[in-house]
Design goal:
globular; alpha/beta; 255 residues; 17% strand; binds NADP nicotinamide-adenine-dinucleotide phosphate; 9 helices; seven-stranded parallel sheet; single chain
């Protein structure tokens, strides 16, 4: 097995806010074998100011951290982001596909745009980044890929047929790719977060939040850091023998 140097070199899509931001922070600040866990290139779509702030804050630690604009639904943007990471970090060891959006509506009112945008950003985005990182990962015979899906892809949710389809697609994709690339020492896993405090769930009203909370055995919403810590685990040596798995991080909502 190839000995991968520390710090590792990571790409995180959608790292400017929410869960992605927590993942970027954890990668940069977690100590591993006497250094930080990873140098990071993270992407965003529109929140340049937040991305610049995060890049500045974390660069002050001495780690290499770069935020760049790259729309996950665009293959050419994905290729440019990976090329940028190879240039600035010297390669790519970890890929965290986190970028995602919702365009909720009941089916009778769901437009083709609502459908296409969500499938493009959430599912085609996962295809795009996985496809372009494989070459460098296969060449170095090492890679750790974590695709952030959702429990909605497991159990469905009224008003989210587009989102659920995109996230369920990520599970099938993850398992198929895991089988394809395991012989090259590349693991591919998916996380299924439950109900996590971010801008995405801020849109819910109090009544919706109460209803959701009543279905969470651990009786609290998750924090972005709850997801970030599991991502670090899947990217660490402790998880070397785990691939093709869907891990729910949801306070027990789905069991
Ligand atoms: P969020 O707070 O809305 O943040 C989304 C992040 O993704 C932002 O950095 C955003 O960048 C980026 N992004 C969105 N569309 C993009 C695109 N087309 N290209 C590149 N970046 C894009 O969302 P979150 O709650 O942290 O969710 C992160 C992931 O976890 C998503 O895949 C989501 O489906 C999943 N998830 C979340 C929950 C939850 O309860 N929050 C539960 C299950 C799964 P900009 O700032 O530039 O827009």
């Amino acid at each position: 097995m190839t000995d991968i140097m520390n710090p590792k070199r990571a790409i995180v899509t959608g790292g400017s806010r929410g869960i992605g931001k927590a993942i970027v922070k954890e990668l940069v600040t977690r100590v591993n074998n006497g250094t930080h866990f990873a140098d990071v290139v993270f992407t965003y779509n529109s929140s340049k100011e937040k991305a610049d702030e995060l890049e500045k804050e974390l660069s002050a630690t001495g780690a290499k951290v770069f935020g760049i604009k790259a729309d996950s639904s665009s293959m050419s943007d994905a290729q440019a982001a990976v090329d940028f990471a190879v240039e600035k970090l010297g390669g790519v060891d970890l890929l965290i596909n986190n970028a995602g959006i919702t365009r909720d509506n009941l089916m009778l009112r769901m437009s083709e745009d609502d459908w296409n945008q969500v499938i493009s950003a959430n599912l085609t985005g996962v295809f795009n980044y996985n496809k372009v990182v494989l070459k460098p990962m296969m060449a170095q015979r090492y890679g750790r890929i974590v695709n952030i899906s959702s429990i909605v892809g497991l159990i469905g949710n009224a008003g989210q047929a587009n989102y659920a389809a995109s996230k369920a697609g990520v599970f099938g994709f993850t398992k198929s790719l895991a089988k394809e690339v395991a012989s090259r020492n590349i693991t591919v896993n998916a996380l299924a977060p439950g109900f996590i405090e971010t801008d995405m769930t801020d849109k819910l009203n109090e009544k919706q939040k109460e209803a959701l909370l009543s279905n969470i055995p651990l009786k609290r919403m998750g924090k972005a850091e709850d997801i970030a810590r599991v991502v670090i685990f899947l990217c660490s040596e402790d998880a070397d023998y785990i691939t093709g798995q869907v891990i729910a991080v949801d306070g027990g909502m789905v069991m």
